[in-house]
Design brief:
With 528 residues, this protein is α/β, with parallel strands linked by helices. It is 38% helix and 20% strand. It has three domains: 256 residues, inorganic pyrophosphatase (n-terminal core) (Alpha-Beta Complex); 106 residues, Diaminopimelate Epimerase, Chain A, domain 1; 110 residues, OB fold (Dihydrolipoamide Acetyltransferase, E2P) (Beta Barrel). It contains 16 helices and 16 strands. It is globular and about 75 Å long.
């Protein structure tokens, strides 16, 4: 921290601009969906099924990306119009993705998956036996062997040459629908789905560079004026002229996610696909209530999980009997934030452990898990996040094995990506700086919102805010030469006056709109 220099606005601009190609990508630069391996053939097959009046069932996933993919498909088929049965598996009854359990409820000629299926080997066998055509669309990392489906559309397949493979499940589904639209000669405007698509890209933590940046930019813009009932409700709820990627990541995605985590993701699908604002509002209220329950459950589980952490391990592995399996992924994220180490959290029931893994820095958690798959019953995911299952008797062996695998890694791999951009002078924190930052939005994965550093600033005053006094406002003087104080805000954190009377912390800058007045808001990220 000692070496961090002051940075001025010009230097900050150059630093942020260096994250992108010289040429900013536009929607027109999105590579043709025909470059997705198997996509043209899959689109032809779906078009044939529609013309022949065949029964089509869609199987999605219960996270934001999966529900978004399903919603886009449902909306598209509604506009053809053609009947589509859409199923989102229930996390507790069905497990993940298309499975033999889910197929028991399916009576179809063609099954299409979105955001899942790349590891659905037994489901593919069942489809073969029953004479059902199976088209898998997914974006998760495939194993050496893939299921025996009619077609698999996945940018991560070795034989796929799609120029930008870092796309989410909803993007794969959307690109495929673009080809289907052409096959059927329809005049559906594919841009109308960008609001839902943007939410999926942000929630699934896709890198916000290249075409993802163009999609999210256009999608957030559409969110601000779309007539889709769900988008109207999101706009009303956020009550902002401009919706940002952080609004989606912190306020909207958790609500959509909470349905599949605690109850059933169909509640979120009903919100997305509501045909009037009354229905959309009712579903959104329901998601809000579930999200509050999710927060309470997660806070309690996190508390218990922290007590079980072995701080000498490189990879944290904890398990708890009766922990709610819908929140283990979030608890893993909380442990990563707290210990700056990758974390795997298991929920244990009847001798079976179901877990979620989250990573940090450059540690590829998927590869580490894959190295030890002999101890698991199932696993899947990508570099930063994965899901896995095993028998309880194997937890200790797995913990030891994955920590042995991690010994091969470089220390640098574990450094969290929150790199500090530098220190800002008090006079530089103004509305011009806000405009500069705004020009680089949307911020997110691979384009993180810049984080700045304050060192040994003198604390003038600390005020607690909120109904339960759980947030803090800290007024500080950055240096003795400053004539003007600045205010830092810490949400969900009670700060008390330290003995030294000074504070060193990292912070990000957000736009605060109050009574028509715009000011920079400094949000404390980490106190050193």
């Amino acid at each position: 921290m000692e070496t961090l220099d002051y940075i001025n606005k010009n230097e900050l601009y150059t630093l942020l601009a260096s994250r992108f190609d010289k040429e900013e990508k536009k929607l027109s630069n999105i590579p043709s969906p025909e470059l997705l391996h198997n996509a043209p053939e899959a689109a032809k097959k779906i078009a044939e099924a529609i013309r022949a009046n065949k029964r089509i069932t869609l199987v999605g996933d219960y996270d934001v990306d999966g529900v978004s993919s399903t919603a886009i498909m449902v909306d598209f088929f509604r506009q053809i119009p053609y009947p589509l049965e859409a199923i989102i598996p229930n996390r507790f009854r069905d497990g993940y993705g298309v499975s033999p359990t889910v197929l028991e409820r399916v009576d179809a000629d063609l099954v299409i998956t979105v955001d899942n299926g790349i590891s659905a080997f037994s489901a593919a066998e069942v489809c073969k036996e029953r004479g059902i055509d199976l088209i898998i669309t997914d974006h998760h990392t495939p194993a050496e062997k893939v299921p025996d489906a009619l077609y698999i559309v996945n940018p991560k397949l070795n034989e796929c040459d799609y120029p930008f493979p870092e796309i989410c499940g909803a993007q794969v589904a959307w690109l495929l629908l673009g080809l289907l639209k052409k096959e059927l000669g329809l005049s559906i405007d594919m841009r109308q789905f960008l609001d839902i698509l943007a939410i999926a890209v942000i929630a699934d933590v896709m890198p916000l560079v290249n075409i993802n940046r163009a999609i999210v930019k256009a999608g957030l813009e559409l969110l601000s004026n779309s007539s889709r009932p769900a988008s109207i409700i999101i706009r009303d709820f956020l009550n902002k002229k401009r919706v940002t990627s952080e609004d989606i990541a912190f306020q909207i995605a958790p609500r959509i996610n909470s349905a599949g985590r605690l109850e059933d993701a169909s509640l979120a699908l009903d919100f997305y696909t509501a045909q009037d604002t009354h229905t959309a509002y009712r579903q959104f209220e329901l998601l809000g209530q579930l999200n509050e329950m999710r927060k309470e459950t997660e806070a309690q589980t996190t508390k218990e999980a922290i007590k079980k952490v072995n701080v000498n391990d490189k990879i944290i592995v904890v398990a708890g009997e009766g922990w709610h399996e819908g929140v283990v992924g979030i608890v893993a994220s909380r442990l990563v934030d707290r210990f700056s180490l990758p974390a795997i959290v298991f929920s244990v029931e009847d001798g079976v452990a179901k877990g979620s893994a989250r990573s940090v820095g450059d540690v590829n958690i998927y590869e580490l898990i894959k190295e030890n798959e002999h101890l698991l019953t199932k696993f899947g995911g990508h570099k930063m996040a994965a899901g896995l299952g095993l028998n309880v008797d194997n937890i200790d062996a797995f913990t030891e094995a994955i920590n042995n695998s991690a010994k091969e890694l470089n220390e640098e791999d574990f450094i969290p990506k929150e790199s500090l951009s530098g220190r800002l002078r008090t006079e530089d924190i103004d509305n011009e700086l806000l405009e500069l930052l705004e020009s680089f939005e949307p911020f997110g994965e691979a384009n993180l919102r810049p984080t700045f550093y304050i060192k040994n600033a003198q604390i003038l005053n600390i005020r607690l805010m909120g109904a339960d006094k759980s947030h803090s406002r800290v007024e500080i003087l950055q240096s003795n030469d400053d004539t003007k104080s600045i205010e830092l805000v810490a949400f969900r954190q009670v700060i008390t006056m330290p003995k030294s009377g000074t504070i060193s912390c990292s912070y990000s800058i957000a736009k605060n709109e109050f009574n028509g007045k715009i000011t920079p808001q400094l949000l404390i990220k980490k106190i050193y």
